[in-house]
Amino acid sequence: MSAVERDAEQYEVVSAGYTAPLLAAAGITAGDRVLDVGCGYGTTTRAAALLAGSGRVLGNDLSPAMVAGARALSAGAGHVVFEAGDAQTHPFPDGGFDVAISRMGVMFFADPVAAFANIGRALRPGGRLAIATVGAPEHNDLPGLVAAAAPGADAVLALSDPAHLTAVVSAAGFQDITVRPVATTIALATDPAAAAEFICEWGAFRGFLTAGPAEGFAARRAAAAAALTVAAQRFHSGEGILLRSSAWLVTAVRPA
């Protein structure tokens, strides 16, 4: 297994439970033009392409490395293209899409209203938005677990208040907004030490370890692994490390 395949597989361990609800909410049909925001390694992009048939699907992500990985993993998939860029400012074609989706890809915008407004501009009048974003902290174990080793890692909770989330999407110009909870269980690993190793190698966390001086990386990683092993103990059951996970599933429409 390549490094890209391994990293993509780890993202699926955490997020796969939200793919089916997201696609059902998006209502993608044959011929639709679909924008996938924060597409990561392209799992949801490829799934949308299967539903869109002859339609075109664009996967967008801030990370050029992930976009390159998505292209590699999508070789042979028809009607799928990928572009790296910040969805807050990326020059998507005006009215170029029928549907915009995002699975856990909208939590880190510096200006979420501007980002959603830019996504809305990319939709045709009457175009649909469907996103899954991290839900209430009391129903999500992973952010707290990760924050035990990396202060600030709980930034994924930026849109976890449904009232704030609704206000952001509304301020961006969307109408007919619905927000409903969906939940899944993350089977993270077999035991606390394996859970710590998973998180230390997980792309969403690894940046916290590599951010400092290179000569201190080994010590930072060892300290993080130790803290994560301790923190994961409370989630250990006979079935391994099981984490509660919830998301807000949001649908909205660009005004006609």
From TrEMBL:
Gene3D superfamilies given in the database record: Vaccinia Virus protein VP39
InterPro entries per record: Methyltransf_11 (IPR013216), SAM-dependent_MTases_sf (IPR029063)
Residue span(s) of domain Methyltransferase type: 35-131
Keywords on record: Methyltransferase, Transferase
Highest taxon above the source species: Bacteria
Molecular function terms, GO-annotated: methyltransferase activity
Gene Ontology biological-process annotations: methylation
PANTHER family, sorted: 2-METHOXY-6-POLYPRENYL-1,4-BENZOQUINOL METHYLASE, MITOCHONDRIAL, METHYLTRANSFERASE
Name recorded for this polypeptide: Methyltransferase
Lineage: Bacteria, Bacillati, Actinomycetota, Actinomycetes, Micromonosporales
